[in-house]
UniProtKB/TrEMBL annotation:
Protein's gene: grpE
GO MF entry, a single one: unfolded protein binding
Binding partners and assembly: Homodimer.
Keyword Cytoplasm: yes
Keyword Cytoplasm listed: yes
InterPro entries: GrpE, GrpE_CC, GrpE_head
Predominant subcellular localization, coarse grouping: cytoplasm
Protein task: Participates actively in the response to hyperosmotic and heat shock by preventing the aggregation of stress-denatured proteins, in association with DnaK and GrpE. It is the nucleotide exchange factor for DnaK and may function as a thermosensor. Unfolded proteins bind initially to DnaJ; upon interaction with the DnaJ-bound protein, DnaK hydrolyzes its bound ATP, resulting in the formation of a stable complex. GrpE releases ADP from DnaK; ATP binding to DnaK triggers the release of the substrate protein, thus completing the reaction cycle.
Record's subcellular location: Cytoplasm
GO biological process, one term: protein folding
A UniProt-annotated Pfam family: GrpE
Protein name: Protein GrpE
GO cellular component: cytoplasm
Keywords of the record: Chaperone, Cytoplasm, Stress response
Lineage: Bacteria, Pseudomonadati, Bacteroidota, Flavobacteriia, Flavobacteriales
Amino acid sequence: MKFKNIFKNKSNMTTENTEIDQELDDVTLENNANGEQLIVEELSVEEQLAKDLAHEKDKFLRLFAEFENYKRRTSKERIELFKTAGQDVLVAMLPVLDDFDRAMVEISKSEDEVLTKGVELIHEKLKNALVSKGLEQVEVRAGDAFNADFAEAITQIPAPSEDLKGKIVDVIEKGYKLGDKIIRFPKVVTGQ
């Protein structure tokens, strides 16, 4: 702009400022909160359209990015849901699997080989069906270091030997996981 003064009131202008009056054709005066008049440039039609276009492009890009994030998030949730969809059924089947394991131990003590072989086949079929649905056993053994992230200590006993202090002495109940998620922690006894 060519003029150096900011006019607080349009009535203060004199006839000597006709040059400035011509320049004000491109400028409008607006009142601010204090009642003072401020000089604001008017935009040409092309500039206004360019500004509106930039605003709409920005709005569109933000909306598109938000939609892409939504698609990615829902896709991830759907995959996770499919992985754990049968979790309730598998958790309900774990006590049956535990009973089957205990039955196998007792049946293997009997002398009837045909009964042992038949129950063993059924046991393997059940285990294979559960494994095919994503069930995995959490590997915890006596002598392993106790980690609260992968096992649940139900009691502590005096360690039978010095090397078992702070380690797992016995596994009471097997633990299982579905994918990367542990659905039942193994119950263990630790040595102190």
